[in-house]
Amino acid sequence: MDDTAGSSGWATPSTVQWCRWLLDSYRHWAGEELIERAGTPEVQAHRLFDAPFVVVSHGIEEDPILNYGNRRALDLWESTWEQLVTTPSRMTAEPVHQDERRRMLETARSCGFFSDYRGVRISLTGRRFRIEGACVWTVMDARAVRVGQAASFSQWTRL
């Protein structure tokens, strides 16, 4: 398995488990699979990491920290795995876009799923980009306890 850009963090047992919850939660809220679910949890985590669309997530801390980003997310946010998973989620949007981002996350938290989101984000190096058609969902553990939020999208434009 590839470790380019310091990205092997996706293969740890805790991240493989997180990927399972992320995928199970997406199926719960969206009524469909995000990726093909064949194979072991490790195979599915690898497939998610290499997916041709962005997947990113954070936990439920007071000021949530990003805890997952697939290869497309790392590329888009111009980040290594180690940098991404220590970044407060709010830092993915410029201050002027924070209120809009907070409202979207609250809607996704209260409804479980929010689709067709669009907004402006910023990479760790300061490059701005607009995302479109994003879906945001609540991540639940095996006991259906809320443990985070995730987003996925395949459309973005550098600004």
TrEMBL record:
MEKHLA domain spans which residues?
17-157
Q: Identify one Pfam family in the record.
A: MEKHLA
InterPro entries (UniProt xref): MEKHLA (IPR013978)
Name of the protein this chain belongs to: MEKHLA domain-containing protein
What organism does this protein naturally occur in? Nitrospira japonica
